[in-house]
Specification:
This protein has helices spanning 38-42, 52-62, 81-91, 106-114, 132-136, 143-156, 173-182, 212-222; strands at residues 4-11, 20-25, 68-72, 96-101, 120-124, 160-166, 188-193, 228-232. It is an alpha/beta fold and 234 residues long. It has one domain (4-232): Alpha-Beta Barrel (TIM Barrel). Helix 4 runs parallel beside helix 6 and helix 7 runs parallel beside helix 8. It starts with a strand and ends with a strand. The structure holds iron/sulfur cluster.
Length: 234
């Protein structure tokens, strides 16, 4: 079900190099302890849902000033076919679409790629596959699905990035090396600085983020394997 819980009229940072509106969808199948959209992830957001028609009408009035729309969450692919229909309606307004995903739904990504509906994919690749449950806070994760989603984007996406939030205790030099090896040949990866506030697991609000220099060191470890490695928020 496409449950829209938020609409940010304009963002200059969510969709790289584009002025974009941001649409927030409810619910997620992961429980990353550092998640800053906890109420969306848990499905406990009390803000009223926004009808899809209302969002599309808004986008229609603003499309002269926007390049595109970023769809985030929560995990947008949980909306299934309703997400595909929604993206199609946005594209009909001649707006670009960025989809942010945790990569757990390769079937839906395959269909979006087949229909060439999304212009930019931003997929979390949170940890080496053998450490995924710990970092994503889920009891079991089918890592083959994460792997399959990543391979699909590398092979078929018109443009994309992978990214990970770099959290002390969950990420280290080994993480950087293993992730880069697993994504060898990928186009772009961003290491995102952890923000110690509003975390899904409140104990993470007390963690001190890594100094920026450490993120640059992680980036240097990844560069031999991934074409472009950047650091965000540090
Ligand atoms: S950070 Fe984790 S829990 Fe939060 S929305 Fe993304 S995948 Fe879900």
């Amino acid at each position: 079900m496409l449950d829209i819980k938020g609409l940010m009229p304009t963002s200059l940072i969510e969709y790289p190099n584009k002025i974009a509106a941001v649409v927030f969808l409810n619910n997620c199948n992961f429980r990353c302890p550092f998640c800053q959209n906890a109420s969306l992830a848990l499905g406990t957001e009390t803000a009223p849902s926004i009808p899809r028609e209302q969002v599309l009408a808004f986008l229609k009035t603003r499309k002269k000033w926007l390049d595109g729309v970023a769809i985030t969450g929560g995990e947008p692919t949980l909306a299934g076919d309703e997400l595909i229909a929604f993206v199609r309606e946005i594209k009909a307004l001649s707006l670009c679409v960025e989809l942010e995903t945790n990569g757990s739904n390769p079937e839906l990504l395959r269909e979006l790629l087949r229909q060439r509906l999304v212009d930019y994919y931003a997929m979390d690749y949170k940890a080496p596959l053998d450490d995924y449950e710990r970092v994503a806070g889920a009891a079991t994760i089918d890592k083959n699905r994460i792997k399959e989603s990543a391979a699909l984007l590398i092979a078929e996406a018109p443009d994309y990035e992978f990214r990970a939030t770099v959290v002390p205790g969950l990420f280290d030099e080994r993480s950087a090396l293993r992730i880069a090896q697993e994504l060898k040949g990928a186009k772009r990866f961003f290491l995102q600085q952890f923000q110690a506030r509003d975390c899904l697991d409140a104990s993470f609000n007390k963690l001190a983020p890594f100094p920026p220099k450490r993120l640059q060191e992680f980036a240097a470890i990844m560069r031999p394997f991934v074409s472009e490695v950047g650091v965000r928020g540090a």
